Amino acid sequence: MKNSFFKYSKKCLLLGIFLSLMGFYQGAAQKTVTGTVSDETGVPIPGANVIIKGTTKGAVTDFDGNFSITALAEEVLVISYIGHVSKTIAIGSQTSISVTLQSDVQQLDDVVVIGYGTVKKSDVTGSVSRIDSKSFEDQPVTRVEEALQGRAAGVTVAKANGQPGGAIKVRIRGVNSITGNNQPLVVVDGVLGGDLSTINPDDIAAMDILKDASATAIYGVRGSNGVIIITTKKGSGKGKINVNYFTSFSSSPNSVPRLGAEDFAIIENLRRTNSGGAAIYTESQIAAFAANGGTDYEQEILRTGISKNLAISANGSEGNIRYYFSGNYRDEEGIVINTGYNQLSIRSNVEAQVKDNFKIGLNVYGSRSENKNNTDRFGNGQGSFIYKALTWDPTTPVYNAAGEYNIRSSVASLNDNPVRSLNETRIRDNEERLNATINTTYNITDNFTYSLILGTQISSLNVERYAVEIGDDQLPHTSFNNNKNTSYQMSNIFTWQKEFGDIHDIKLTGVQEYSNSKFQGNGWNANDLSLQGRGFYFAELAPNSGQTVNNEFNERELSSFMLRAEYILDNNLFLTATGRYDASSVFREKERWGFFPSVALAYSLNDLIENSNSLSSLKLRAGWGQVGNQNIGPYSSFTTLGFNSYAANGTAATTGTFINSIGNPFATWETTSQLNVGIDLGFANGKGNISIDGYKKVTEDLLLNATIPDYDGGELGANTILKNVGEVENKGIDLTVGYDFITTENTNWSSNFSLSYVENKVTQLNDGLTTIIGQFQAPGGQGNILNFIEINQPLGQFNGATFLGTWKSTDDIPLNSEGIPIAKPGEAKYVLDENNEVKFGAIGNGTPKLTWGFNNTISIKNWDFNIFLQGVHGFDIYNIQQAAITGGAGDSRSFLSPDQVNQWTPTNETDIPAFAHLYESSRYVEKGDFIRLSNLTIGYTLKDIKTLNDVSIKLYAGGQNLFLITDYSGYDPESSSRRSAEGNEDVAPGINVGAYPNPRTYTLGAKIRF
């Protein structure tokens, strides 16, 4: 018993000694570590988290950025603060630590947003272009599209016209669809379906453009036209306020040459006498025109437009909350009288790090805009108001002797006085928009993350229209339409990533997504509705006035599943594979689901060039994928009915129905397959970089209207059915070159050049057809079509006659079927068919092949400069505006072109016709190629002014569209025009029927930061 007691006591003693030694060791190893956390500017960061890695033990920095923590020497500290890049520090023998956290704005430069996640630039496998705010912040842009223009290879941006708030067309790698929408998908902070025209450019941190199918396949049925992912700004660090104000002065940079009143009167007399009529102007009248010059209606409707833009933002972070608030007001006067645009927008981005593993953000955006006398809302059957002004009678003044408008003239344009039309018309497009997004991220484990995106978008567009001229009734025509769109989206995103040693890196992303959108429209229209100066909502309807009511509703849903796998081997081989499964309600149930796969591979050759004196990086890329297009009407695959009333034999009218459209239960997606190969290389020790991509994409199963026989429903009201029968091909090359020419302490010069070449071709049409007639009608009421679609040719073919000059008195003029000469000397001569009739066919194409942009940013001490050039080549313009002033048929029969001074006469047989001739001819097809100085801005920043403390002031001045090199005779080859209900705009590009001039603008502004 005694021995047992001693043995037990000995064990206890040994255990006590061991525990005491362990306690001594622990006490000796633990120590107090103090430190300071500050941002990159040296400002202390209060509320930063200091955590011992792998534990929940930690501390928070005080108001001065100081912290104190007890830890072991072998432990590691993780220092983090919202809006900054986290940093890990091994403690070792240190007892005092000074930590600097870099803002995550810098981190943005190192990653690319690829949808539902990010990837390092060096790890990108697809064709992705990034545009950060630095590339356009020195340019006074008011539209996001202007920031895109010329800065990303493969992206084409064209202003349809120069009207404030006007449409700007964005296309990525050509045009895919003939009947569907070709606009790229816009994703703003994870929410799909954004509108570029409504976003404040100052709110944008970066834009990532997904171009090839291996990158866009993650968006499945919505990704066929490319994807633009916009990341808005977030606050970080010490609170800052930014104010940017500029004012602009805009005017038309040129005018369209036309005859003055004197020459017009002489030529008009000659035109009438040549046609067997009598002269209408006397010698005394012509002498009076020579003395007073007549009236130039172009100058009567043009003016200098003064615009103002104010943007204010505040951003920063407090504790675990980061914030960004902004407001923007723009007020733009159009260079055409009584036109303009104004918009007020606000944004609030707030993000909170609730716990170390849980983050939540709320983004709210609201805007209200008013477009004054939007050109698309005018009655353009006889051409736009620009068209009418350029063809109006210069011998008739705006007002008569009584001070009233001269409404019409018996010569030149037969339309109403364009000055009266613009001044007396009141059209307002009032749009209100509210977007809200909730983003949450929860780190379930160190490797597994769940994110939720909830987004909703609400927009309401009210169009109030009161026009004094529509047709010949001379009655005021009034209409009102309310269009409301509501949509919401829910995205569940699961991400798992794990590194296995230094060799393998695997990342899996799974997405379940649902979206719903609804459209509600209603309105009315009436003629002879008098406002009597009391405002639109106090209009009075005259007795027996015509009036109609319209209503519309549609809805669409999209349900999706997506899985993406990313694999990196030894930091050299990069593989990305994606599959997305989409179901869209616009198709019947059996055709509703579609699967869209993609795969991309990249290989880094950096190891092979590490000793190279010229190359600093080299990567090869290849990818293939499929994406879809569901951009058709929600009920296009269903048979729809129309309603009308009919009074048989003079009896009371009864209501009946008719087949409005015949549905196709087998209609399904348009599918685009794309193959992309690319190479990325860096040179000159990282100062320069080059990316080259070659691609081929084929869009199959294009939805086209195929004719059906009468016995199958055609005689019942509908004679076409939507089928998947067409095919379009795009092939091209994208090139991007960047180089930092100078990088010194006081001087920097960086340049970026992007170039895109694309060949578009229609390879298949429905029912074996080789051509399909378009829908763009020439003005004049004759119904002549200016465009068509042709097999094995690009979209955008011009339809017309080939002009050969004039018939001369010595020509053997052919006879028609009745034995009568088809023309007389002095008339226009065209290529004829076998029946001696004018032969119509392809005479040009309006789709550009080559676009480029060259952006330069230079800073010399306090001075900075931005120079941006752009060019577009390989396309034609169908200048119907020029045809109108040259006496084409229709409602503009008189000659106004200065060329007519040298028109054909029996003694001077020139190639300028002396008689009315066709609008639709190659005589009016011109080369559209141009080079433009889009922006030149010079700025000076006031720095190191002691009395201003932390205030920075930058003053700048510049100009946009300062010069244009082109052979085009109109205002601007980039501008085109089209009326509503004239088909897909990409099937009829480059046609000018009086486009609003693209202005030249001079800007003065100031940026203040404090």
From TrEMBL:
<dbReference type="InterPro" id="IPR036942">
    <property type="entry name" value="Beta-barrel_TonB_sf"/>
</dbReference>
<dbReference type="Pfam" id="PF07715">
    <property type="entry name" value="Plug"/>
</dbReference>
<dbReference type="InterPro" id="IPR023997">
    <property type="entry name" value="TonB-dep_OMP_SusC/RagA_CS"/>
</dbReference>
<dbReference type="InterPro" id="IPR037066">
    <property type="entry name" value="Plug_dom_sf"/>
</dbReference>
<keyword id="KW-0813">Transport</keyword>
<dbReference type="InterPro" id="IPR012910">
    <property type="entry name" value="Plug_dom"/>
</dbReference>
<dbReference type="InterPro" id="IPR039426">
    <property type="entry name" value="TonB-dep_rcpt-like"/>
</dbReference>
<dbReference type="InterPro" id="IPR023996">
    <property type="entry name" value="TonB-dep_OMP_SusC/RagA"/>
</dbReference>
<protein>
    <submittedName>
        <fullName>TonB-dependent receptor plug</fullName>
    </submittedName>
</protein>
<keyword id="KW-0998">Cell outer membrane</keyword>
<keyword id="KW-0675">Receptor</keyword>
<keyword id="KW-0732">Signal</keyword>
<keyword id="KW-0472">Membrane</keyword>
<comment type="similarity">
    <text>Belongs to the TonB-dependent receptor family.</text>
</comment>
<dbReference type="InterPro" id="IPR008969">
    <property type="entry name" value="CarboxyPept-like_regulatory"/>
</dbReference>
<feature type="domain" description="TonB-dependent receptor plug">
    <location>
        <begin position="120"/>
        <end position="227"/>
    </location>
</feature>
<dbReference type="GO" id="GO:0009279">
    <property type="term" value="C:cell outer membrane"/>
</dbReference>
<keyword id="KW-1134">Transmembrane beta strand</keyword>
<keyword id="KW-0812">Transmembrane</keyword>
<dbReference type="Pfam" id="PF13715">
    <property type="entry name" value="CarbopepD_reg_2"/>
</dbReference>
<feature type="signal peptide">
    <location>
        <begin position="1"/>
        <end position="28"/>
    </location>
</feature>
